[in-house]
Amino acid sequence: MTAYFLPYGHKQLTIELPDTRQVDHLLPADTPPLPDPDQAIFEALQAPIGDTDWRAFENAQSVGIAINDKTRPVPHPNPVRHLLNHLEALGFKPGQITLFVASGTHAPMSADELPRLLDQSILDRYAVQVHDCDHSPIAKLGETNYHNPIHINADFYNCDLKISVGNIEPHHFMGFSGGVKTAAIGLAGRATIAANHARLTHPQARTGVYHINPLRQEVEEIGRKAGVQFSLGTILDEHKQILKVYFGEPVAVMGAAIPMVREVFGVNVPALYDLVIASPGGAPKDINLYQSQKALTHAARITREGGWVVLLAACPEGSGSDSYEAYITEAKSHQAVIDQFQSGFFKVGPHKAMLIARDAVRVNVVLVSDLPPQVVKRWKLTPSKPELINELLAWIGTKLPPEARVAILPAATRTLTEIKK
Prior knowledge:
Elements: E1 2-8, E2 11-17, E3 22-25, H1 37-46, E4 63-68, H2 79-89, E5 97-102, H3 120-125, E6 127-130, E7 138-143, E8 149-153, H4 154-157, E9 161-167, E10 170-171, E11 175-176, H5 181-184, H6 190-197, H7 214-226, E12 230-236, E13 242-248, H8 250-265, E14 266-269, E15 273-278, H9 289-300, E16 303-312, H10 322-330, H11 334-342, H12 350-360, E17 364-368, H13 373-378, E18 382-384, H14 389-397, E19 405-409, E20 416-419
Parallel strand pairs: 3-19, 4-5, 4-9, 5-6, 9-12, 14-20, 15-16, 15-19, 16-17, 17-18
Antiparallel strand pairs: 1-2, 7-8, 10-11, 12-13
């Protein structure tokens, strides 16, 4: 038997597989972190890329900075600290700067959770507003080219200088995260998020597609119409260390970062697997099922029909969506979910049920988590516990052909899996 170690919440699970199995350990490319990330962030802020310049905003009176909520990793070091220092060096006073926590449709963070994102010294010095897509003040900016409403947090929109901060990595239907997405989706009203995500069944709404991905291109349009002038983006390794930092005009940042994201996170495999054992990457990637589902997408892409995906996701905060739970509990089956969405129904929250169903009708999905088994069963998934992982794998092994191919994805959320054409 050979032991493998996969992230699970804030710890690791050890799994054992027979030496007779063909096992591929699929990881992002081994890329060294920046030797001096603080200096790299400083230099990036000094020289923005793209058609933009700090001098154009020297008369600005207010600054809004969109930052990710607790469902995204916080880089080490946190570039927000350097951004704030740079803004003060430009002459902005702390009272002119507000940090906006981009919740999207997630449950807004409480005040006592904010130290998970920002040092207490920052919380003491700057205003922080946690966005609520249903209750925050909203600016209505017309429609996108897809005739979807543009509703953005009004306090953020009314800032003279607007900056979006986020990590750039593969995204299961947006193509890539980062750029203006933190602001355009994270600080949007529910109507905007729902209208954008309703197109996730489009054939180009998938991992690794940017220029012809309708969801991602609408995000860029929302960012332009909301007036987001700058984006600060980082590419991180599995330890949240910075591999590269980009700053400047948002589309220029994405254009500069995507080639490296493909190089670091892209993994081509020659053929489909019979069994894929996948971890979203540990906390906070597996904070709930809502986030962990992204790993399922990347794992199922390389699993044969009728094969198995074992998803190792602690999910300490449950599903992450009450509306998802209510919907999937009442649904008759995964196929019924797909049929309803194909008939024109769409709602944020239940859309996760559709994304899961697309994979669950094709492959067998087992969720290894800390959740009560009866809860997982209500979600139409097969439950298991971390302490039973090796018994589970031994049982699945009896269902596989002798020449079965097995893959392990320790960072499935960020691994851009593709079948080699």
